[in-house]
Amino acid sequence: MIIRINRMQMPVFHSSAGEAALLDTEAATSRTERRDQQVARILDAAKTCFVRSGFQGASMQQICSEVGMSPGALYRYFPSKEAIIEAITEADRRRDAEIFSVLTLGGDVVDGFVAAAMAHIRYMHESGNAPLFAEIRAESMRNDAIDFACKMSMKDVDDSFRSFLRGAVDRGEIDPCADLDTILPVMVAFGEGLAINDLPAQGVDFERLEVVIRAIATAVLRPTGRSTAS
User: Fold this and answer.
1) Nearest CA to 193 among 216, 170, 171, 173?
2) 18, 38, 124, 206: which has the fewest Cβ within 10 Å?
3) Quick check: 125 and 198 in contact, CB under 8 A?
4) Band of pLDDT at residue 152, cut at 50, 70 and 90
5) Residues 6+ positions from 44 with CB-CB distance below 8 Å
6) Residues 211-216: contacts with CB within 8 Å, 24+ apart?
7) For residue 105, which phi and psi values (nearest 5 degrees)?
8) pTM for this one?
9) Three-state SS for 205?
10) pLDDT tens digit sequence for 47-87
């Protein structure tokens, strides 16, 4: 027996509205992922150029060559070197917020401070970002746009650090050697110095470095021996 199938009667399947929406979402996600990948490639290339030639010496053309991208394509993502630095510092802000979240993990104020400091030192050492950080900070002293980007990058960390110490003072857990408006910028400058110098890369042992940082934190913050539980 021969069965003849009329092609005109073959069922036709149509995508539902839900399936179409799913395809649109997947396409949008794919575009976002590709954009994020391109941005990451540009930032990595820019970091290499800034460390190699300095912010002033590195040109957008050099960054294009490093990343393998035409100037027109690059400018669709970043219109200037300042915009690239802003993106780098914004990424640093998010990462620093994660690093300094360890401040409140321990019950002891000094322990929290030391844990955050050591986490930051380890990150700077392992990432190899000390030369880039030094270049950005140097440029911030002569470029108002970069200075603003750096200050905005540090704002969340400064606010969380201030809140952390203010709470400890209010609870009577520490009796700092000076007011917080003096201590905070000193501590930030101290931390920046440690980050730029990358002491572990110079052979300073992490454990011995932690001992020194703990001694400094104890001398400055002067814990009273009281705790929330007492």
Assistant:
1) 216
2) 18
3) yes
4) confident
5) 67
6) 213/114, 213/117, 213/118, 214/110, 214/114, 216/190
7) -75, -30
8) 0.74
9) coil
10) 999 989 988 899 999 999 999 999 999 999 999 998 998 89
